[in-house]
């Protein structure tokens, strides 16, 4: 099972108490707030409670966060989030965040290559979806390359300093061979 969450370059792993300071840094980075719909900072205490609850079953919390570890040097470089987990309809949203120094190096694509089979084979999902701002070309390219298909656009969905922007909805349906 752990082979599904590891390749020769990286590993997806559970959130650990030692991750609180890193999560505090990332969750409070205001540059990331528009893509995560965050409007206020998180305290270390809030994040420590989150990490403690992360040990609960995905069926209880309806979410799952996996940290992305770069194996060479044992560096935590990002995270993959599963959210809005719906076991009845067997679907969930997925998001990915990488530290700025690791973007554009294929790490996010490799993480999705590990995460999607896990979501389908282990969690038994039928589909994954993601919502991406129209202007976020890097994320759109990432998810399209991973096989996600554009299925809809929400007009004037996201408020930006320049006005409103469309949000694009992508889906990845479980491959028929599974």
Task: Explain what the structure shows.
The chain is of the alpha+beta class and 178 residues long. The protein has a domain at 2-125: Aminopeptidase (3-Layer(aba) Sandwich), CATH 3.40.630. Helices cover 28% and strands 35% of the residues. The protein contains six helices and seven strands. A hairpin with a 4-residue loop joins strand 3 and strand 4.
List the keywords:
178 residues; alpha+beta; Aminopeptidase
Tell me what portion of residues adopts beta-strand conformation: 25-35%
Gross morphology: globular
Summed up, the helix count is: 6
The sequence of SSEs as H and E is EHHHHEEEHEHEE
CATH homologous superfamily designation of the domain at 2-125 = Gcn5-related N-acetyltransferase (GNAT)
Sheet with most strands: strand arrangement? 1-2-3-4-5-7-6
The total beta strand count reads 7
Oligomeric composition of the shown chains = single chain
Give the biggest beta sheet: 7 strands, mixed
Gyration radius from CA atoms, angstroms = 16 Å
CATH architect. name of the domain at 2-125: 3-Layer(aba) Sandwich
CATH class descriptor of the domain at 2-125: Alpha Beta
User: What value does the average pLDDT take?
Assistant: 86
Distance between the termini: 16 Å
Specify the helix fraction band. 25-40%
Structural class: alpha+beta
Outline the secondary-structure elements.
Layout: E1 10-14, H1 20-27, H2 33-36, H3 44-53, H4 58-61, E2 64-70, E3 75-86, E4 91-98, H5 107-121, E5 127-133, H6 137-145, E6 149-160, E7 163-173
Parallel strand pairs: 4-5
Antiparallel strand pairs: 1-2, 2-3, 3-4, 5-7, 6-7
